[in-house]
Design a protein that fits this description.
The complex is a heterodimer of chains A (about 400) and B (about 80). Chain A is mostly helical. In chain A, about 70% of the residues lie in helices and about 5% in strands. In chain A, α4 (about 75-90) crosses α14 and α5 packs parallel to α15. The model of chain B has no long low-confidence stretch (mean pLDDT about 95). The two termini of chain B are about 15 Å apart. Chain B has 2 helices and 4 strands; from the N terminus they run βαβαββ. The chains are: A mainly alpha (about 400), B alpha+beta (about 80).
């Protein structure tokens, strides 16, 4: 009896109130460092692309297909299990229900997702791979991608505020809430959560039992997806918020949480890259240094980032924010995920080549900051940017100078 | 409790409930009470936080079958 009381208390602590976003930020950054050690820093858009390519393959559109099946693609697996992790977390905290938004909102989800699919393929990376991992990875292009996200978010927020005045009907109309988790009839939800955890651990052990190294790595991504999904849902960690909120409500909790993530990952990533953790030979060291550094410096990153920023703000979730909200039951974000998955492979095939033609090669280069500034200079540059950003959001929170609401 | 205005945000996800809330409150008179209903779990923290920041008062919150209900008095 005594023991049960203590465990019950722990459960309620974990799944009662939401966790502070900064706590989620630190935990996610620590897991990101581990993902780097296992294979590659966290990313999300590559998983959407892979799922989309498999989807086209299934339909027989081989020109947009891929050779990597979903079950062996680490990022696709991570994405799927983040949805499931967030689903379980929402079940445990009685926050799950199928939330069907009015039709206008569902269309906005679809369009936002499609824009994210275009932006992520042009800019090479989303807010996760390009920003959350790209900035700590000391990528010069990541800074321009981030600038693009910010401008895109700002423009799309102005649109949302305008829409509310000029076209209020878009966000009005019939909505449905099904299978709500609160109330007396919802005991099954927690049981379902436990069953799903058991199933996921079984999948994890199947992958890691005696397969190849690749199987073992993918298996760990199953496990990491579950944990990431739980943390994301409990802390409602949201990168759109970090970029949007200074211009909307003015609150600084989300941007500060994201800054903490960058700071923690910056320390871990720099150590891994500096010492070449995981490999000894010189060429391999270079390969480690260039992880999460993509050929998009600077115009390609800026362009893609802007389009992605528009999309994530209209959808109400970036690539990862879409995943955990989908797990929580928001149908608008399911529409965003579908828009992303359908558009990304198409964009890669048909839109990206156009941008590669018009953007000169010097403006879509791989740019590893330490090559120009040394490790110390590169880290200092990021710290100064974080500090300026911090001063801005705190100043704005006090004065409300830039916030619309 | 006397409710002067109602706002239905069921099915909507972040940031739409807060944008709608701000717009609705703006058009109300001082001391009037708004009943807001939403289904986004994020609203549980976002609505009180926004009210505190803007000086409006959350009189009461309820949870019914997956919906979160707030009674907000305008400053």
């Amino acid at each position: 009896m005594f023991k049960k009381g203590i465990l019950r208390e722990l459960f309620d602590k974990l799944f009662g109130k939401s966790w502070p976003m900064w706590l989620g930020g630190i935990l996610l950054a620590l897991l990101n460092i581990l993902l780097f050690v296992i294979k590659y820093p966290w990313g999300a858009s590559g998983g959407y692309v892979n799922i989309g390519q498999n989807f086209y393959q299934m339909l027989g559109v081989t020109s947009m297909g891929t050779k990597t099946i979903i079950s062996l693609h680490t990022v696709a697996i991570l994405n799927i299990f983040i949805i499931l992790g967030a689903f379980i977390s929402a079940l445990f905290s009685k926050e799950f229900s199928i939330k069907v938004a009015p039709i206008g909102e569902l269309v906005k989800g679809l369009i936002g997702g499609a824009l994210m699919g275009i932006g992520a393929t042009i800019g090479i990376g989303c807010t996760t791979g390009g920003f959350f991992s790209g900035v700590p990875a000391l990528s010069g292009g990541a800074l321009f991608l981030t600038l693009g996200f910010m401008v895109g978010t700002f423009v799309a927020l102005r649109y949302l505020l305008w829409e509310m005045e000029a076209l209020p009907n878009i966000s009005m109309g019939k909505s449905f809430t099904l299978l709500a988790g609160s109330g007396k009839k919802a005991g099954w939800q927690r049981w379902l959560g436990w069953v799903l955890i058991a199933v996921i651990l079984f999948i994890f052990s199947n992958y890691t039992k005696d397969g190849s190294t690749l199987h073992k790595i993918v298996g760990w991504h199953v496990f990491f997806g579950l944990i990431l999904g739980l943390i994301l849902q409990r802390s409602r960690y949201c990168i759109v918020r970090a970029f949007r909120e200074p211009f909307m409500t003015g609150e600084s909790a989300a941007p500060v949480a994201v800054m903490l993530s960058i700071l923690v990952a910056l320390i871990g990533f720099t150590v891994i890259k500096f010492f070449g953790v995981g490999n000894a030979s010189e060429t391999a060291l270079r390969a480690i240094e260039m992880k999460s550094v993509y050929p998009h410096f600077w115009l390609r990153a800026l362009t893609g980032g802007f389009i992605f920023g528009l999309g994530m703000t209209v959808a109400g979730g970036c690539a990862v924010g879409t995943l955990w909200r989908a797990g929580e039951g928001h149908i608008k974000l399911w529409m965003a995920a579908i828009g992303f998955v359908v558009m990304a492979p198409f964009s890669k095939k048909a839109i990206v080549p156009f941008f590669e033609k018009i953007i000169p090669e010097t403006m879509r280069a791989k740019m590893f900051l330490p090559d120009y500034l040394g490790y110390t200079g590169a880290v200092l540059l990021i710290l100064v940017i974080l500090l300026l950003w911090y001063i801005f959001v705190k100043w704005n929170e006090k004065t409300g100078k830039c916030s619309a609401l | 409790m006397q409710v002067d205005q109602k706002l239905d945000c069921k099915g909507l996800s972040c940031p739409m409930p807060i944008i709608k809330l701000a717009k609705t409150i703006k058009k109300m008179d001082s001391d009037q009470v708004l009943e807001m209903i939403g289904t986004d779990p994020g609203s549980k923290e976002d609505v009180p936080a926004w009210c505190e920041k803007t000086g409006n008062t959350v009189l009461e919150t309820k949870e019914e079958d997956g919906a979160f209900i707030f009674y907000i008095k305008k400053k």
